[in-house]
Amino acid sequence: MNVLTKTGTSDGHAADARTTALHSEIANLRQLLQVNEARAQVNEARAVAEADRAEDARLLVEETRLVAEDARLRAEDARLVAEDARLEVARVNDSHKEQRRMVHDLIAVGADAVIVLDENYVVTYMNQQAMDEVSGGDSCVGCALLDVYPHIESTPFWPRYKKVMEERVSIAFEDYYEPRKVWYQVNAAPVGKGIAFFFRDVTGRRQRDAALQRTEKLAAVGRLASSISHEINNPLESVTNLLYLIQTSISADDETRTYAQLASSELARVSHIVTQTLKFHRQSTDACNTRASEILDSVLSLFHGRIVTLGTAVHTRYAATDTLMCFTGDMRQVFANLIGNALDATGERGAIWLRTSHAFDPRTNAPGVRVTVADNGCGMSPATQRSIFDAFFTTKGATGTGLGLWVSHEIIHNHNGTIRVRSCDTPRHSGTVFSVFFPD
Within its chain, how far is the Cα of 237 from the centroid? Predict the structure, then answer.
């Protein structure tokens, strides 16, 4: 029993020890499980944290990508805007170039000559008209104006150019350029730091204006002469009647009657001249049939005194019928110009031939009347013949207006007629023939 008791006691202690050890082992296992669970939780937490960090990183990367894409899009927009701006600048530049080219072309082909000067009066541009006008077709670009044209400083043009340059104002004027004997119309204006001036030769217009003024004066003189001629007619008739009474008077002796007859003859000539003067001034409103020979004879009557003084021989040969449908006053003016020029050309002891005849137009073969005025005067050179019908062309110097043949040509043209000239200026074989044809 003691043995059993001892044995039982020992076994109990052993069981308790094993239980204790088991409990301890269980506790350790629990503790290990708790540690493992803690570690799992930590690992899980770490995994969650790493997942969160990865998501955050992914989101950050995505956001960065979106920002970069937005930046790329903005850069592309900026590039497109810059390209549009570049294209617009190019378009504006092309437009400006085209405008400058058009302005250059307009200036180049315009009627005005153009010269541009910089602030030192050096020529920077000349169009072709300016080169042709002032430098014989050569360019003066790069040359100082006063070096090329030193005489301009003494003309009225230079002070005006200086005024435009210094005061920066625009001016326009017309003045006579003595070195070239030419009238110029000038427009000058500031351009950049320098000036530009446009100019053209208006000598022809000035001459036409002066000629028109002279023509108006001559017309006024003509009207005055016509009025005087009209008023002279009345006393002429009275004097004619008195001379007739003297010739038929019983108390007058033969010598008195002779003087009265001579006076009547001269007075008749005066009356005829007055009548022809009136015919020159009067112009019918409608054309009428008039014999060319009658017109020529009436013109010869006006030049009778001059013909006698010069001793000019006048030879006439008229067709039996040489009727023209014309304005008689205009025709008198035409043939007065032709006969007057013939008298100027022949001088003393010359000869003039006047002819009327039936003829045909060499171009159209149309029938009509030809009137020929020929002389054995000094003749004309080929160059003169090419210019005689131009307005203001004259070989008579200060005494000529250059309008006679020009006006005659216009009158003949208005009558559907033609005028031709043949002339030779060879000594001893000189002379001129004007042939005027009027169709029926």
Answer: 59
What is the model's pTM? Answer: 0.45
Q: Which CATH architecture has domain 285-439?
A: 2-Layer Sandwich (3.30)
Looking at CATH, the fold of the domain delimited by 206-282 is given as Helix Hairpins (1.10.287)
pLDDT level of residue 4 (50, 70, 90 thresholds): very low
Query: What average pLDDT does this structure show over 126-137?
Result: 84
pLDDT recorded at residue 329: 76
151-191 confidence digits (pLDDT tens): 888 899 999 999 999 999 999 999 998 888 889 999 999 99
CATH code assigned to 113-201 = 3.30.450.20
β-strand 182-191 against 113-117: which pairing, if any?
A: unpaired
In the predicted model, is pLDDT for residue 3 greater than 50? Answer: no
CA distance readout (Å), 249 to 236, 258, 262, 266: 20, 12, 16, 20
How many Cα atoms are found within 13 Å in the side-chain-facing hemisphere of 26? 6
Q: Hey, where are the domains in the chain?
A: 15-96, 113-201, 206-282, 285-439
The C-alpha R_g of the chain, in whole angstroms, comes to: 58
